[in-house]
């Protein structure tokens, strides 16, 4: 059980600062879909895929004092999260719990949260034909027109390609690409 907490703590540590719960939800889901070892269960909610487990893990990490919730981050007026010194001590016992995802996380953190909502929603409906998945995304999260959806699909393809290259270069296995 603590391994799942450690993965979230390691992700936040690699991000430096994780700007908000919603963004964390989307990033973990996207990384999970890319094949990284996150095993939280997701269901669909108002803003796309959502995990009660992840929400609880974040709360517990804050309660343990391993993760600090800080003020507001950017224009989204949501708290940001960073690892505390106690959290770094906790991670010392889980040194290799999460592969190096720093580059992927930086890329994801730099995106707007609403764009990550679209990306994660399209990934959530990846079992459907593209056109149907795009229609669902437009209906359920109010995604804009075809240009934004095409941009999100291009972004998804780039993420898969980058993860494939980095996993081969580092010798990681087990990613489902």
Describe the secondary structure blueprint for this structure.
Blueprint: H1 2-15, H2 21-33, E1 43-45, E2 48-50, H3 52-64, E3 67-73, E4 78-83, H4 85-92, H5 102-109, H6 113-124, H7 130-140, H8 146-170
Antiparallel strand pairs: 1-2, 3-4
Helix pairs in contact: 1-3, 1-4, 2-6, 6-8
Task: List descriptors.
single chain; 177 residues; mainly alpha; two-stranded antiparallel ribbon; two-stranded antiparallel sheet; 8 helices; disordered C terminus
What does this structure look like?
This protein has 177 residues and is mainly α. Helix content is 59%, strand content 11%. The protein is built from eight helices and four strands. The chain has helices spanning 2-15, 21-33, 52-64, 85-92, 102-109, 113-124, 130-140, 146-170; strands at residues 43-45, 48-50, 67-73, 78-83. The chain has a two-stranded antiparallel sheet with strand order 1-2. A two-stranded antiparallel sheet has the order 3-4. A hairpin with a 4-residue loop joins strand 3 and strand 4. The two termini are 26 Å apart.
- Secondary-structure-derived class: mainly alpha
Gyration radius from CA atoms, angstroms: 16 Å
| DSSP strand tally | 4
The major sheet is characterized as: 2 strands, antiparallel
Low-confidence stretches: 168-177
Span between N and C termini? 26 Å
- Order of adjacent strands in the largest pleated sheet: 1-2
> Total helix count?
8
Reading the helices and strands in chain order gives HHEEHEEHHHHH
Share of residues in strands: 5-15%
> What's the quaternary structure here?
single chain
Question: What percent of the residues sit in helical stretches (DSSP H or I)?
Answer: 55-70%
State mean pLDDT (0 to 100 scale). Answer: 88
What overall geometry do the principal axes of the alpha carbons give?
Answer: elongated
């Amino acid at each position: 059980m603590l391994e799942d907490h450690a993965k979230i703590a390691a992700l936040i540590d690699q991000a430096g600062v994780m700007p908000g719960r919603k963004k964390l939800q989307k990033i973990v889901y996207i990384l999970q879909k890319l094949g990284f070892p996150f095993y939280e269960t997701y269901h669909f909610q108002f803003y796309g895929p959502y995990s009660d487990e992840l929400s609880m893990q974040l709360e517990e990490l804050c309660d343990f004092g391993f993760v600090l919730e800080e003020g507001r981050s950017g224009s989204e007026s949501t708290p940001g999260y960073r690892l505390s010194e106690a959290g770094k001590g906790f991670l010392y016992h889980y040194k290799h719990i999460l592969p190096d995802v720093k580059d992927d996380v930086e890329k994801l953190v730099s995106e707007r949260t609403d764009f990550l909502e679209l990306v994660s929603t399209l990934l959530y409906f990846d079992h459907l034909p593209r056109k149907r998945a795009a229609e669902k995304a437009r209906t359920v999260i109010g995604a804009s027109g075809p240009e934004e959806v095409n941009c999100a699909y291009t972004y998804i393809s780039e993420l898969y390609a980058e993860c494939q290259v980095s996993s081969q270069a580092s010798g990681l296995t087990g990613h489902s690409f």
